[in-house]
Design a protein that fits this description.
Layout: H1 24-31, H2 42-49, H3 54-59, H4 66-72, H5 75-78, E1 80-82, H6 91-101, E2 107-109, H7 118-121, E3 132-134, H8 142-150, E4 157-162, H9 173-180, E5 184-189, E6 205-210, E7 241-246, H10 250-265, E8 273-277, H11 286-298, E9 300-305, H12 308-311, H13 316-319, E10 321-329, H14 337-344, E11 356-358, H15 381-390, E12 396-398, H16 414-418, E13 426-430, H17 480-486, E14 493-497, H18 527-532, E15 541-547, H19 554-562, E16 568-574, H20 583-590, E17 598-602, E18 607-608, H21 610-616, E19 624-628, E20 633-634, H22 636-645, E21 651-656, H23 660-674, E22 682-687, H24 694-697, H25 702-709
Parallel strand pairs: 1-2, 2-3, 3-4, 4-5, 5-6, 6-7, 7-8, 8-9, 9-10, 10-11, 11-12, 12-13, 13-14, 14-15, 15-16, 16-17, 17-19, 18-20, 19-21, 21-22
Helix pairs in contact: 8-9, 10-11, 19-20, 20-21, 21-22, 22-23
Length: 724
């Protein structure tokens, strides 16, 4: 590509620096006989630039030279702009980006950009060619939303929040005209409202997220009756996908019933995905029964998720018709293995189209009879074998929150059967499910964790010197778990969660102080099994929770060394409660996690000291940190030093056993010192002394609570590609 003169749209704005374009670096490299980045072809350079944040392309890269200026504004790079989790996107950078490439942008995601002011969000109106826009988590009043949407006549896909104070009567006629053409709507509700749904006459995909608190900040009890008088005629006649996810609380159930009431009158003929995710119980009503009966008669579904109370003891699945299903979720249902095979898989019917299956909390799904099975009983491997054979193209599978114990027998172990699912990309399993059916003769029995730490005049551990074994030291290649991971080399998301694990800060359940003890078989899953995870070279997301068999934590070092693509790590309750003896191994692991962006650590009595934060500082890509430790401690000076070194850290949430005064002082110090240079900085430091932290986290952006602070299993939580 020749260095032609820039067009007016590509020229430098009045705010640009006066540094001229130059090709001197390339020329100097050629004289030295070396290679230079600009010597690559345009195709290679465009691929490299596709990994650079859009704000950096516009503000920095395009100023380097004429060639990069032209490539930075290539249509392939400016067609779709992702600002989500771009914590360096300041107000000025976003405004400049819109000014330079606004007319070229067709897809824009500003989801979770809570730090941008409403006036900056208004600049989206200049992107008149937008077809898709995601403004979830952004500050938008009814009037600002009206102003933005009035200018976006090409818009077909929209994501917004509906917050207290929203008033649909303030939407202009131009805004309503735009909404009438929207086909895809994602709406997160923080107040009882229909939002903009009644204005969207062409809806084909509707995603509803209910995050309404039962009480206001002032303590007033909310009610769905607040919606009386609002327009209640949503247009569902063209609907193909209906999805509703509810946070805990009766008010969310009350409001979703009002949305479902219209569906019960007339089921859309083209409906092919119907999904409702509800924590806890959600009683059926006459309207919902009519809706389900109508669906059974008139539509063939490709995706299904229903509240457990609608399925338990019901013959509904027997009457449902499925076309080419790609997603099923029966989370927390009392679905037996016999019913799973007969009613869902239809006696071994070919379900190659099924890509995602969520059976979390289905404690009886791998046994023939749910009435007679006990938690400690072995699974019926023939049921799992039928499932694997029928759903051979599964990419996402969740079997967590249940006891799936394998019996003796060659090739009958759950891990051996799952190893046949070569297309799996995400997998969630209970810890006890990966344990060998019986202790192996070639493995010495694990010693109790209380004896793992040298006592008295024993040899001391030297800080800074690696005392953990190498990547696969002591590892038994004959274990079923090792064989499973060997056959799934492209796995990107793995969860090992104890069957009885209960987080101190859960997403969908009430926090409880006295959790159940771990499954006895989980004691057989220790450092060598964790080390086996190091085989997964493409692993990006890892969760390990309630592994009492962890002794030194040497397996963590293997993961840090081998899993170089790891971006998200969640560790909870490793080893014996009250003894955090894996700190040296964790510190060694973190030194190698150069691409780690999110770290969630939940461990009672954890000492977040200078050694921990020094190791964490070497995670140079870290953006979000959450520490949950009942009875734990932290060193304020170490936290401040870590934040000074961690230049990309934008979210710091810590809930420990420190006093309220210490927590408030540290939080104020962090905000005072770093907020000016980090516009997206979000800090919450608070004592974890009681279960209800609603008032504390009320003002924390939901995107962070949902993704890092509050614990939940994420594998097969939603259908794949539900939203772009």
């Amino acid at each position: 590509m020749e260095d032609a003169a820039l067009s007016p749209e590509q020229d430098m704005t009045s705010t640009d620096t006066t540094a001229p374009y130059t090709s001197a670096p390339a020329a100097q490299a050629e004289e030295a006989g070396g290679a230079h980045l600009l010597g690559f072809s345009d195709e290679i350079l465009l691929h490299i630039l596709s990994h650079v944040p859009s704000t950096d392309l516009v503000v920095n890269v395009r100023r380097v030279c004429r060639k990069l200026a032209a490539l930075s504004l290539d249509k392939s790079l400016v067609h779709s702009v992702l600002l989500q989790k771009d914590y360096q996107a300041s107000e000025d950078k976003v405004k400049q980006l819109v000014k330079v490439i606004g007319r070229e942008i067709q897809q824009l995601s500003m989801a979770g950009c809570y730090w941008l002011s409403g006036s900056t969000i208004e600049h989206v109106a200049r992107c008149r060619g937008l077809v898709k826009v995601n403004l979830s988590g952004c500050h938008l009043t009814s009037l600002r939303l009206s102003k933005v949407l009035s200018a976006l006549q090409q818009l077909r896909s929209l994501a917004i929040d509906v917050s207290p104070g929203f008033d649909a009567s303030q939407l202009s006629s131009e805004c309503r005209a735009t909404l009438s053409r929207v086909r895809e709507l994602k709406q997160t509700l923080f107040t009882p409202s229909y939002g903009v749904v009644p204005c969207c006459a062409s809806l084909q995909k509707l995603l509803l997220y209910f995050e309404i608190l039962d009480r206001t900040r002032e303590g007033a009890v909310l009610s769905g009756q607040l919606m009386v008088g609002q327009s209640n005629v949503p247009h569902y006649q063209n609907l193909r996908i209906f999805y509703a996810r509810l946070a805990p609380g009766y008010i969310n159930q009350e409001v979703v019933r009002l949305y479902l009431a219209v569906l019960s009158d007339r089921t859309p003929e083209n409906l092919h995905a119907f999904l409702i995710s509800v924590p806890g119980s959600f009683a059926e009503s006459g309207a919902t029964k009519n809706l389900l009966e109508s669906m059974a008669r008139n539509v063939a579904l490709d995706a299904l998720q229903l509240p457990k109370s609608w399925l338990n003891g019901s013959s509904l699945l027997q009457h449902m018709k499925f076309n080419n299903p790609f997603y099923f979720s029966f989370s927390r249902c009392t679905l037996s293995g016999g019913h799973l095979i007969q009613r869902v898989i239809n006696g071994g019917k070919d379900l190659r189209s099924l890509a995602s299956l969520n059976l979390s909390g289905c404690v009886h799904c791998l046994s023939p009879d749910s009435l007679l099975r006990k938690a400690e009983d072995d699974i019926d491997s023939s049921i799992l074998e039928t499932l694997v054979a029928s759903c051979c193209n599964l990419r996402h599978l969740n079997l967590s929150a249940a006891h799936h114990h394998s019996a003796e027998g060659l090739g009958r172990h759950l891990c051996h059967l799952l190893a046949r699912l070569r297309h799996l990309r995400s997998l969630s399993l209970p810890v006890c499910a990966v344990a060998d059916s019986a202790p192996r003769a070639d493995r010495a029995p694990a010693q109790p964790a209380m004896h793992a730490v040298p006592r008295g005049f024993g040899k001391k551990v030297r800080i800074g010197v690696q005392t953990c074994p190498g990547p696969f030291a002591g590892h038994q290649p004959s274990s079923a778990f090792w064989s499973l991971l060997k056959n799934l080399p492209f796995l990107e998301h793995l969860e090992l969660i104890g069957s009885n694990f209960s987080s101190a800060m859960p997403r969908n359940e009430p926090a409880i102080r006295n959790s159940l003890p771990p499954c006895s078989r989980a004691q057989n899953v220790g450092d060598s099994e964790v080390a086996a995870i190091g085989q997964l070279a493409f692993l990006r997301h890892l969760t390990l929770a309630q592994l009492p068999g962890i002794l030194t934590g040497s397996g963590l070092v293997s993961i840090g060394l081998q899993c170089q693509q790891l971006q998200s790590l969640s560790l909870a309750n490793l080893g014996m409660m009250g003894n955090v003896i894996y700190m040296p191994a964790l510190s060694d692991m973190l030194k190698h996690c150069r691409r780690l962006k999110d770290l969630r650590l939940e461990q009672p009595y954890f000492n977040a000291n200078a050694q921990f934060f020094q190791a964490l500082s070497q995670c140079t890509s870290l953006q979000r940190l959450c520490l949950v430790s009942r009875g734990g401690t932290l060193q304020p000076d170490a936290v401040l030093a870590f934040m000074a070194r961690g230049l990309h850290v934008a979210v710091c949430h810590m809930f420990t056993g420190e006093s309220l005064a210490t927590c408030k002082s540290l939080q104020q110090s962090l905000l005072r010192r770093f907020q000016a240079e980090r516009p997206a900085l979000n800090v919450v430091i608070f004592p974890l002394l009681h279960e209800d932290l609603t008032d504390v986290i009320r003002d924390v952006p939901m995107v962070h609570l949902d993704e890092i602070t509050l614990f939940k299993s994420r594998v097969a939580e939603e259908p794949p590609n539900l939203w772009w």
